[in-house]
Amino acid sequence: MERKSLKKNKNGLNGEISVPGDKSISHRSIMFGSIAEGTTTVSNFLLGDDCLSTISCFRKLGVEMEQNEEQVIIHGKGLKNLQEPKEILDVGNSGTTIRLLTGILSGLNFHSTLIGDSSIGKRPMTRVVKPLKEMGAQIDGRDNGNFTPLSVRGGKLRSITYQLPVASAQVKSAILFAGLQANGTTTVKEKAPTRDHTERMIKRFGGDIHVSDAGIEITGGQHLQGAEIHVPGDISSAAFFLVAGCIIPNSRIVLNNVGLNPTRTGIIDVLQQMGANIEVIPDSEDSFEPTGTIIVSTSSLHSTTIGGDIIPRLIDEIPIIALLATQASGTTVIKDAHELKVKETNRIDTVVNELKKLGANIEATEDGMIIHGRTDLTASTVQSHGDHRIGMMLAMAAQISEGEMQLEDSAAISVSYPTFFSDLKKLENE
Questions:
Q1: Average pLDDT for consecutive 10-residue bins of the chain (430 residues)?
Q2: H/E stretch holding 357
Q3: Range 23-230 has CATH code 3.65.10.10
Q4: Which CATH class is domain 3-21+232-429?
Q5: Active-site option among 316, 387, 409, 423
Q6: Domain residue limits, the chain
Q7: How far apart are the first and last CA of the chain?
Q8: Would residue 316 show up in a list of annotated catalytic residues for this protein?
Q9: What sign for the dihedral angle of Cα 105, 183, 229, 284?
């Protein structure tokens, strides 16, 4: 298990970086490129472990791809020309891959088996399996299909109208992928808006999808066409540097080509609410995903309450927001975040326990956490627990903690941000 020694930053973080491509969009670009007809070219693709797992799975389904550091070229086969895999489909640590891929496989007339690592083995699949079974797919697994390995025998699907019981872009996307193959029109209804990359990408690949207050409607039998995709920088990765720029003295960071999809920018709203020195400059270019430049500098922060409809817009950023709150005056409350319990780890308990090791005044609640600031932190031996976002949060905590921190299982960070430590070093050296 890889361990990294990290020390307090005494000079600030200064300079410009471009964070890696968005993980959610990178996953979907491979999926849509594979099920479309013709060639798809993807630039700024995230070469992280999770997205490479998606590439591996689709290659096993017979899709030819060429991959280098600059781009991925996908020779799409069309949905009905995917092939029954001769091997088990291993998604690694990627919840996005297994849930969305299950939706695709549900309409294909062959058998597949999906597995993942030990973390995936603990993540609930019923939320995806239930609606797909309602559409006619045959899916089984441990605990009646709630846990991997999953066995999928796809076939003829019928359309449904489905109310999502939890706010989940993964479940929504799985149903939409199945809906592309179902007879009739499938409708998905959300209690709160979740990230809409799937809906945007369907349009990008020439598909027809209707989004309104009544729900998201998609009609089966569509044929998608290959497209050119430029993946914007991942705002979930940028979030770690946005927070670092606020809480580390003498800092000013410029982040270029950051995705500004409004379903993902909750972190910017929270930073503004807490008094951050932050400037957002949208790009003028017309794109299927909005992008821009974000400039952040050392800030005097105050507490806030985070809950309700904003939670799906920042669910992946809550670990780093918790660190941010330790450096804000007053008491910050995070609520309505039950979904954190079924991420790569139980992120409520993990965030609280690891920050407590550093001296944070933080407590877990049933659906979030309460953080009392402002608190000076002291370095200790901490653990990512195999969760990339916990690892990056702790690495940024080291920047403001007295002493030398030992971060165990730091390699987990490569899941979404392979160049994290080199980008951090670049800003330290500016």
A1: 91 96 97 98 94 97 92 95 97 96 97 95 93 97 92 96 93 98 97 93 97 94 96 96 98 97 96 98 84 97 96 93 98 92 79 97 95 96 94 97 96 92 88
A2: helix 347-357
A3: yes
A4: alpha beta
A5: 316
A6: 3-21+232-429, 23-230
A7: 31
A8: yes
A9: negative
